[in-house]
């Protein structure tokens, strides 16, 4: 399952506290005060019946980078992902990089989608 279009749609024109927050797949090279990157953490079959999986479950990790306190941004991201059909499953460590001068944290979300019906064999 490719969740990238879902993530891009959820965060299209994302503004937090009057500032446009860029979101990019895997890396960001701009100079924004806050930005988000994301990547697929896992993708696996789910909901087995009659020896066939009936759904796919994807886990996606969003990394939040911010030059200031990111707690409010983190909660807004969590809410937007929930509204987009994802389930929050994990928040990782929080740390500060003196080299880049960004605070950073990771959040992981999951989503399951049913597969199309398999015709009778």
- Rounded mean pLDDT is 89
The helix-strand sequence is HEEEEEHEE
The number of helical segments is 2
Tally of distinct domains: 1
CATH architecture: 2-Layer Sandwich
What would the principal axes of the Cα set say about the shape?
elongated
Structure keywords:
single chain; elongated; alpha+beta; two-stranded antiparallel ribbon; 121 residues; 51% strand
Describe the structure.
The chain is an alpha+beta fold and 121 residues long. It has one domain: STM4215-like (2-Layer Sandwich), CATH 3.30.2000.30. Helices cover 17% and strands 51% of the residues. It is built from two helices and seven strands, in the order αβββββαββ. A hairpin with a 2-residue loop joins β1 and β2. The two termini are 24 Å apart.
Summarize the structure.
This protein is α+β, with helices and mostly antiparallel strands and 121 residues long.
Q: What secondary-structure arrangement, pairings included, does this model have?
A:
Blueprint: H1 4-10, E1 15-16, E2 19-20, E3 23-25, E4 34-49, E5 52-66, H2 71-83, E6 87-97, E7 102-114
Parallel strand pairs: 3-4
Antiparallel strand pairs: 1-2, 4-5, 5-7, 6-7
